[in-house]
């Protein structure tokens, strides 16, 4: 019997029942990670661990420790950004000129020692110093860059054999002159720590050119994402010294489809042919289900078993022959199922023409038609879509699902909530209203429930930001729309508002794709186009129902951008095309909106312009008005509503604070094209703060109208 290959994982889902180390160990893993769990945000945890705490929060903490309960807590929150190309949001650390790195807590050490006392062979996980600082930003007024403060923030991990140091920025295009030196400084310092072995870990994509110098760092092992970065393998076998471990990420940690173990075994065989088994590890790359579909899927616990099977099969295949045969049968079942491909959907895609992607007229002509039809004031006000999902709303939904409320009773409740929401917006003075989305649990799950080609889990939770979680749908086959999804509620809401337009609210095809578990047997662009046709049908039906303003949200369009710049153009081309496909079926008079949030938009602003939406609303306040820089560089000729306040914080900004932002925006955006709105939807907020904030926002717009009239 050959020596076994080590099996492990990089981390485990934070959300789920009975998440325990002994559960991981029960799947035969050689080693389990600790320190990867976070109650809120692992980037924020890492920053706090080494003392990266903005001064405004240090003052609050000092007052709290002094027992001052009457302190003013009106402090802006940290900026929020997407974690690489995922829907996970992290808080952006702020590094000041006088930043000192001090051990502020011992979270990772405490968790490692707890695991050790329980008898588990555990590997501490930390976010690498270079990635932590690269993901940070200078504090306001700072003259230095975060990387200027590079230091060794590692805590003592006495007793550990291996430490996993996550450096996901290695999957990005990096300035070699800057980052080669930064990594060398950091890992030369780590190499001085006696008795510890370091596993340098990157994921999300290939290392590419970064592999040349990363392979030479004084670490004891390197993890490769061989699902999304399979192109690295040949170079890695040549460049990584044979005395270093190669951790092979062969099981896709970002999707839920059962792995083709026979295919991945051939990759593993290539590695073991060039290495001894002791220097090879096998790892991960990073509901309403029928029995057949369930057999095609592999969630976190099933992936542990797949990793264990691969590790055993590489050296002792007879021990897992039956499991390999079962895997092959299920992979074949999915590949040959008649439920996957539908001729009507495929034929409709094939029949599309260039006209399918174009509005009837250019924006200037559409704008004239829309102004005549909508008769909106200067600086029109609106919200992004959702209003508070209160405990009462959630309770009614739960009662309906349990059968305690009939369909008619639940529908009556939703209509009452919608009418109250419409009436309040009208009284508050908002110009374009929304129905509030009380019927929706989630902006993607709701649409998946109404489309063919989707299935759902009951407990497949994924963390989005903080303690907020979503349950992504599973796209298993060709997508189509069997019936209208939002037309009835939009029609009802518009009847509640005879004098003001109500927006039809839809989620765009790229966002539905990005926030689902997507089938991997056809290009993502093709799946997105199928979703776009379904949304197009809904857009056309909304217009026919008398809805004059239709919003198709694409908050995920930036996160779908590939990590490597050489891959940008292909993605941007098809992502723009599917949005156009979804929205170009309406008349000139119908105003198409779209919304984007919580990303750095400079890299995709040209693509946003190419979407040809009539109005975009875009996050602005939480990122220190960085949007202004994009407007300076790229310009924008259509209408735009940069967010005037951050909805992810309970604080209510004053009229003066929002007015200052609005005044700055008027320097770059013509008055006739500028809207006033919040940063994002209001689903997670409470009604008192929402009413106060929106009342202030309406006041800002009203004052701006008066000032503009006085100056012209």
Automatic annotation (TrEMBL):
InterPro entries: Cbl-indep_Met_Synth_N (IPR013215), Met_Synth_C/arc (IPR002629), UROD/MetE-like_sf (IPR038071). The keyword Zinc applies. Gene3D superfamilies: 3.20.20.210. Residues 23-273 form the Cobalamin-independent methionine synthase MetE N-terminal domain. It is an enzyme of class 2 (transferase). Residues 379-702 form the Cobalamin-independent methionine synthase MetE C-terminal/archaeal domain. CDD domains: CIMS_C_terminal_like. GO terms for biological process: methionine biosynthetic process; methylation. Keywords: Amino-acid biosynthesis, Metal-binding, Methionine biosynthesis, Methyltransferase, Transferase, Zinc. Its EC number is 2.1.1.14. Its cofactor is Zn(2+). Pathway: Amino-acid biosynthesis; L-methionine biosynthesis via de novo pathway; L-methionine from L-homocysteine (MetE route): step 1/1. GO terms for molecular function: 5-methyltetrahydropteroyltriglutamate-homocysteine S-methyltransferase activity; zinc ion binding. Catalyzes the transfer of a methyl group from 5-methyltetrahydrofolate to homocysteine resulting in methionine formation. Belongs to the vitamin-B12 independent methionine synthase family. This is 5-methyltetrahydropteroyltriglutamate--homocysteine S-methyltransferase.
